[in-house]
Amino acid sequence: MTNNNRLYACACLAGPMVDGGLGPQDADALKALLSGTLDDLANYAAGLPRTHSMSLLELIVSIISRHEADLTALAATLQWEQRKAAYERDCSAWKAAELTCDPAWRDKPMTRGQRFLIADTAALLEIEIPEEMDRGAAADWLDANNANVVLRLEEHKA
């Protein structure tokens, strides 16, 4: 799907939500609500007045209005789980490829991405930023320091 087609589809699908009173600030809460089950929807709807006579759109808007903080927090957790799964897939693919890779990659200069990730990791861990590493040493350092510290710290909070 092209980017333009995706934007058009998003606008078409979101139109009724906007017409119902939702805005960009409600996107995370809506995503969390739509990621749930029918039982979840019923639980969120419990306690709302006249739910049986509401349109589904009115029900969604009412649920988001009443449970916005919980749904937004749930959306953050769901996003973190997706990012963590993608990161773990990335790491698995990298580890598998590393075994068949020409070892000469290790002697190349560290990548820009490695440099930024090392700096961010060192800052979060409150340690000195290591200097003068090649790509292989940088990869080893990042692995040894559980490089995606943001995911590790967020996992610790969850």
Descriptive notes:
71% of the residues lie in helices and 0% in strands. With 158 residues, it is an all-alpha fold.
Terminal-residue CA separation? 34 Å
What is the ordering of alpha helices and beta strands?
Answer: HHHHHHH
Structural class: mainly alpha
Strand content: under 5%
Q: What's the helix count?
A: 7
Helix content: over 70%
- Evaluate the radius of gyration: 22 Å
Number of beta-strand segments? 0
How is the main sheet built? Answer: none
Low-confidence stretches: none
Shape: elongated
Summarize the structure.
Helices cover 71% and strands 0% of the residues.
Topology (SSEs and partners):
Layout: H1 3-19, H2 27-35, H3 38-45, H4 56-100, H5 112-125, H6 135-144, H7 149-157
Helix pairs in contact: 2-4, 5-6
Main traits of this protein?
0% strand, 71% helix
